[in-house]
Design a protein that fits this description.
Shape: flat
Largest sheet: 10 strands, mixed
Radius of gyration: 35 Å
CATH architecture of the largest domain: 2-Layer Sandwich
Number of domains: 5
Number of strands: 34
CATH class of the largest domain: Alpha Beta
């Protein structure tokens, strides 16, 4: 993984030395303080070392079979760093080498503490290599080309987790021995066996003495290998389990993991970690499931989290895909925890993103042509099919690629022949201009009783639209309304000849085309794909009073339904809101297509007990925020807010009695200088912070009965209410209720609002004005209540008090349904007070 570069500039000076009294500090810095995320680092370093051992074993067997050593080892001998990392043929005896390529990771629950162990069947540790294991900085892999680690510090990462020691057991050429490894010393613990063997090591003891110690080995039939075992505090169990799964998801059956299913489910599960990719190439992996909902980076297979678009200074992209890079092409901190965003790293990842974009583009373009016969592969059909892929696709690969790409930049290709010229060309704006040179193309909608037309210059803007081709007939408002009513649409594409464009020839791709022949070809193409205005029949019904009776009328055809709506002056609207979770854990929504008479809109929607939020398709994502916010805050039980979706032309009928979606979220009060945000948005942001507070506190925060009792005398009733009704964490609800791209946008917006609120609390007027400009595009905003700060601050303070006795709280066997002994609660409260006073 790490890239080791030696620099020798030939300078000769006075040698620097480490002060003898500071040796312990140096050990602490390398073994403990170097890691910001010790659990993840132990898991990553230990499993990586095991994988490297297996890689080394396989390479050794190939070299022993006659393959050139230089294929696998850098032939460098310069520098002291490389003295132990050349290929040593005498170290390997194929009789003791296994053929097992996976690493065994086992998490075992114990009475007081759990353990995690990592076992490889690689090359084992013996001879000088075993002695080197106990030295900081020792590595036998620095000359090897295809391994993950090279620095020689990761083998001691277990000490960074806070344990006093960990154990290392090595098997080498038929014998096994074991050591306990502490921060500054180590002890052999294998007892002498009559059929074993003994090695005599001259070692320096922790007190400075030099001694000769016996290292005993016991016989075994196991192949060469190493097992590292570490004690785990029980409240850290999920952190260790998650660290294994998240970091080694992409190592395709190379890590076998045994672990308990969950906190309450003690069933032990064994699985080969595998992303089970829907799609995999040298550049990209799309996993079956992943803890990451945005593009993330794999460095030689190890996941390094989401791409930092801010560091790259690139537009943010979406999609649950992993982008592969090699460790030799990026810079990584010596702890190997994070990337260093140097020019080298940025250039590498930008190039990887570019390759991923090209690969995704090729896949999506090819998908647009699959499953269609030749007759359906004309350019209009391909354009329609491609546009559907952009919006939604049952094929997960195509959907994720569509989220990742700027789809407007990707054009599908179509094969066609115009004026005897065969072409296989992307559906670009230039091609659109050629094909429709002799035509006018508009989108048509109605603004009241007047036609609204907008010229179209792109294939994107006609995709999956109703096409209406005209030759001589005029299009008026009544005909347009009839077309829209009969097809249940709000607009259509209107195409008619343009005889004012007089050029006989146009150039496209360096070829001259006859515009008349192109126009004839386009007319024929449209004739089979478009409604023909000249042959359509229309029935116009004048508006009449609402009391006109249509009882007994047979309403079956589209014309009859349109007629009925016109006679009764009815309009469509769609109403939906989340009402809860069903028994399968899927959000349940009321979702109805309804009609209402215009005369009845006020009576239907002008109600004090139910607020109606008005939304159009343009703002559907904001509508989703209201729906999601209602569910999180529990207001779906009261049904006091509903969202309705209406077509743009009829907004005017609803507007006096509803709150338009943008007003609901972002009304600015010029008197108070405050942005008045919807209650759902505040609740959503509060809930997000609520769950973040609970997430990092082991399992005690999940003991709802206990928490409610401990908080009984505090002013956090809202916390207790949320515990009472809580049945899922926010991330799970997001994944069930919203598309990943929508939830990511909501999270980003919520965080921006919360940051602004914090700036308002502590910042200077200049800082507040600058942040207001960034968030709301105006410097006038001086206040916003983005989340319930009092509730969150109070809760955080309470939980910090409880943290002083976290191990005890985690050990208490209290479920959701068991009662809590009142005397025990009082003692716990006293103990919490005592521990906090003791700390002070």
């Amino acid at each position: 993984m790490a890239v080791l570069e030696q620099i020798n500039n030939g300078d000769v000076g006075i040698k620097k030395e480490i002060d003898e009294g500071a040796i312990d500090l140096v050990f602490q810095a390398i073994q403990e303080d170097m890691y910001s995320y010790p659990i993840k680092s132990f898991v990553r370093e230990t499993i990586s070392n095991g994988l490297d051992a297996v890689t080394e074993r396989n390479i050794a067997l190939k070299i022993l079979d006659g393959e050139p050593e230089e294929n696998y080892y850098e032939q460098r001998q310069d520098g002291k760093l490389l003295k132990d990392s050349g290929f040593n043929v005498e170290y390997y005896d194929r009789d003791y080498l296994s053929s097992r390529d996976f690493i065994d990771v086992k998490y075992k629950e114990g009475n007081n503490r759990d353990t995690i162990s990592v076992t490889d069947r690689g090359v084992g540790l013996g001879g000088s290599r075993l002695k080197g294991f106990f030295k900081l900085g020792f590595s036998s892999k620095r000359n090897m080309k295809d391994v993950i680690g090279k620095f020689g510090a990761g083998a001691k990462a277990g000490l960074a987790t806070g344990v006093e020691f960990f154990t290392m057991e090595t098997t080498y050429e038929g014998y096994r021995t074991k050591f306990m490894i502490y921060k500054t010393d180590y002890e052999p613990v294998t007892m002498e066996k009559s059929d074993g063997k003994e090695e005599r090591w001259t070692v320096q003891m922790a007190n400075g003495e030099t001694q000769v110690r016996s290292i005993f080995w016991e016989p075994t039939i196991e192949s060469n290998g190493v097992t590292i075992t570490l004690e785990v505090k029980k409240h850290n169990s999920q952190a260790f389990i998650s660290a294994v799964k998240e970091q080694f998801l992409y190592f395709k059956d190379r890590v076998r993991f045994t672990y308990p299913q969950g906190y309450y489910d003690k069933t032990v599960k064994t699985e080969m970690l595998n992303a089970n990719p829907y799609y995999e190439s040298d550049n990209i992996i799309i996993p079956e499931s992943s803890p990451y909902y945005a593009p993330h980076i794999l460095v030689d297979g190890i996941c390094y989290g989401n791409i930092s678009w801010d560091e790259l200074e690139m537009e943010r992209r979406r999609g649950e895909l992993a982008i592969r890079v090699r460790a030799t092409d990026v810079d990584i901190t010596q702890s190997r925890e994070t990337l260093k965003w140097t020019s080298k790293t940025k250039d590498t990842i930008k190039e990887a993103i570019k390759r991923a974009k090209n690969e995704a583009k090729a896949h999506v373009s090819k998908k647009a042509l699959e499953g269609e016969d030749d007759d359906a592969k004309d350019l209009l059909s391909i354009n329609n099919r491609y546009a559907k892929l952009r919006k939604s696709s049952a094929d997960k690969v195509t959907r994720i690629f569509s989220e990742f790409l700027d789809m407007s930049d990707i054009k599908p290709k179509a094969k066609f022949t115009i004026d005897d010229v065969e072409m296989n060309h992307e559906l670009t704006d230039e091609l659109f201009e050629l094909i429709f040179y002799k035509h006018d193309v508009y989108t048509v909608s109605l603004n009241g009783k007047r036609i609204s037309k907008n010229r179209v210059k792109s294939f994107n803007n006609i995709a999956n639209s109703i096409l209406v081709q005209a030759n001589t007939s005029a299009l008026g408002p009544k005909k347009a309304q009839s077309i829209m009513d009969n097809n249940d649409i709000e607009s259509f594409v209107y195409i008619r000849p343009n005889n004012t464009r007089l050029r006989d020839e146009v150039t496209f791709n360096d070829v001259e085309f006859n515009t008349f022949k192109v126009g004839v070809w386009t007319h024929k193409l449209l004739y089979t794909r478009a409604l023909q205005l000249d042959t359509m029949t229309f029935e116009f019904v004048e508006d009449v009073d609402d009391e006109d009776n249509l009882d007994g009328a047979s309403v079956t055809s589209g014309n009859a339904l349109a007629k009925l709506r016109r006679l009764n002056k009815e309009v469509f609207y769609r109403q939906k809101y989340i009402t809860g979770m069903d028994s399968y854990g899927v959000d349940s929504r009321e979702n109805s297509n309804l009609t209402v008479k215009i005369a009845d809109i006020r009576e239907t929607f002008d109600k004090e007990d139910i607020e109606t939020v008005l939304c159009t398709s343009k703002y559907k994502d904001l509508g989703l925020i209201v729906e999601a916010g209602k569910y999180y805050s529990g207001t779906h039980k009261k049904v006091n807010t509903r969202v309705i979706y209406v077509a743009e032309p009829i907004v005017k009928h609803f507007a006096p009695y509803c709150t338009f979606i943008t007003d609901y979220f972002n009304t600015f009060n010029p008197e108070t200088k405050e942005v008045m945000l919807g209650q759902e948005l505040r609740s959503l942001n509060t809930m997000d912070r609520f769950y973040k507070l609970l997430k990092g506190r082991g399992h005690y925060a999940n003991k709802m009965q206990l928490m409610k009792k401990l908080l009984e005398n505090t002013n956090v009733d809202d916390y207790k209410a949320r515990l009472e009704g809580r049945n899922s964490n926010l991330d799970e609800v997001f994944s069930k209720a919203l598309k990943s791209d929508v939830s990511e946008e909501i999270r980003t917006y919520l965080e921006k609002l919360a940051v602004f609120q914090d700036v308002v609390a502590d910042g200077s007027p200049e800082e507040i004005a600058a942040k207001a400009k960034e968030c709301f595009n105006t410097e006038d905003v001086l206040s916003v209540e983005a989340y319930d700060k009092e509730f969150i601050d109070t809760l955080e303070a309470e939980l910090k008090r409880f943290d002083k006795i976290e191990p005890l709280l985690n050990q208490l066997d209290i479920s959701h349904y068991q009662g809590v002994n009142e005397k025990a609660i009082e003692l716990l409260k006293e103990f919490i007070i005592f521990k906090n006073q003791e700390t002070c």
